[in-house]
Write a structure and sequence with these properties.
With about 300 residues, this protein is an alpha+beta fold. The protein is built from eight helices and 18 strands. It binds flavin-adenine dinucleotide.
Length: about 300
């Protein structure tokens, strides 16, 4: 056993939660991504701070993986530690209309559970296939709602293992952005203030959201959701479609015929295919309309094909 593997074992007692050379294509919604040196299921804050300390001492990069629904991982994979928040990070506690939820909890699970209890405000998230922590960092939203509208407090663990509670002002919510992006902050817990609502009405709204998704999004093929952010006052999908790029292909990566801001994996697409296609889409839209599209997906690892 390598010295690092030995040290990991002393922090994560259950060896089944440490996977070496794990292909990340198994963990991304677009089914692309080379191996992570280590993929570790982290069960609590104590383990998380221990892993961060180890990574700091050994000079290992750390990546936090949620549901992998907003990610393009390079074909070479990533070096260092990829951490997935499980155990206590998936938990949910409800007190009146206040909800305290771990950063690893899934957004659809949260939306469905609280709606059954007659709590509204988060039903927009029923069709966002990600986790609370990742959703918080990018202020995920849909159907006119976003996390900024319900979040009152966030607990983060910084890269040095320090815990801190932040209020909305410190989080700095914007359109699909917060000030936490690009920092070492790991979202471990989120507090939300919801509002009492009729459970049947909430279920009805969620059914409508899900039906609309099925009608407008290419859910039959692996994808990573919207590839580009909407530019101010416009829609990335409209610009890409108007540029004549629907159906454009690089290898098995294709601009969806159904929704132009989605790139689908038709089978054997690589990260290189997707990133080359993203670059082509962005330069064509820039040439045609003078609009520079910003990536919404996050890109991990080696990437000379698309400059974020
Ligand atoms: C079919 C489909 C539909 C989608 N629809 C929407 C939509 O309507 N609205 C929308 O906003 N998004 C949408 N998305 C995108 C995606 O689901 C969201 O961005 C979601 O918040 C990503 O969550 P994740 O757990 O999958 O994150 P991942 O893809 O695993 O990670 C994304 C980023 O978040 C970071 N991260 C993960 N967990 C944490 C944490 N606990 N603390 C700090 N950083 C963390 C990762 O390091 C990475 O940089 C859609 C995606 C798909 C595939």
């Amino acid at each position: 056993m390598s010295p690092i593997a030995g040290r990991l074992r002393s922090i994560i007692r259950d060896p089944g939660r440490i996977r070496q050379a794990e292909p990340l294509k198994r963990h991304t919604s677009i089914r692309i991504g080379g191996p992570a040196d280590y993929l570790i299921h982290v069960a609590d804050r104590h383990e998380l701070s221990g892993l961060l300390r180890l990574a700091g001492e050994e000079g290992l990069p750390v990546y936090i993986l949620g549901s992998g629904s907003n990610l393009i991982v390079s074909d070479e994979g990533v070096r260092g530690l990829v951490l997935r928040l499980t155990g206590e990070f998936g938990q949910l506690a409800i007190d009146g209309s206040t909800v305290r939820v771990g950063g690893g909890c899934s957004l659809p699970k949260l939306a469905h559970q609280v709606s059954q209890l007659g709590l509204g405000g988060i039903e927009f998230a029923c069709a966002i296939p990600g986790t609370v922590g990742a959703g918080l960092v990018m202020n995920a939203g849909a159907h006119g709602g976003d996390l900024a509208q319900v979040v009152t407090e966030v607990t983060v663990m910084w890269g040095d293992g320090r815990l801190e509670r932040l209020g909305p002002r410190e989080i700095g919510f914007g359109y699909r952005s917060t000030r936490l992006q690009g920092t070492s902050a790991i979202v471990v817990e989120v507090v939300m203030a919801l509002r009492p609502a009729d459970p049947a009405a909430l279920q009805g709204a969620m059914r409508q959201h899900l039906d609309r998704r099925r009608a407008t999004q290419p859910l039959q093929h692996p994808n990573a959701g919207s590839v580009f952010k909407n530019p101010p006052g416009d829609f990335a999908g409209r610009l890409i479609e108007q540029a004549g790029l629907k159906g454009e292909r690089v290898g098995d990566a294709q601009v969806s015929e159904k929704h132009a801001n989605f790139i689908v994996n038709l089978g054997q697409a690589t990260a290189k295919d997707v990133l080359t296609l993203m670059d082509r889409v962005r330069s064509t839209v820039k040439q045609r309309f003078g609009v520079w599209l910003e990536a919404e997906v996050k890109i991990w690892g080696h990437n000379p094909w698309f400059l974020p």
